[in-house]
Predict the structure.
Amino acid sequence: MTATFTHGDPAFVTIGDLDEVLPGTARAVVVGNNAVAIFRVGGGFLALDDGCLHCGTSLASGWLCSGHVICPQCHWRYELTSGRVEGVPGLHADAFEVRVAGSVVELCTVPKPFPQNAR
């Protein structure tokens, strides 16, 4: 998938068509110089920085399990909604807002703020 800037909101880029990411799967996209993993779960989309913070492996190639993605190499677990790394307090991958406009999927290029109460 490739990203193109949208005309409406400069913070969002078009990353592809809705049918390019099937339910229960993930895809990596490159936005500028950043790789982002897009996950289609629970009827919606979630996005995290694609590289595992521990080993650098693509999280888009990881396993989806109960609201988390598990790195296929080192098995670190990332919460999909916040990017929080389970078992490593204060460490998180950047998470991004994803929206659907008609049949097009758009990604916000600005990371979500990390929740201060996340552990």
The domain at 4-108 is CATH 2.102.10.10 (Rieske Iron-sulfur Protein).
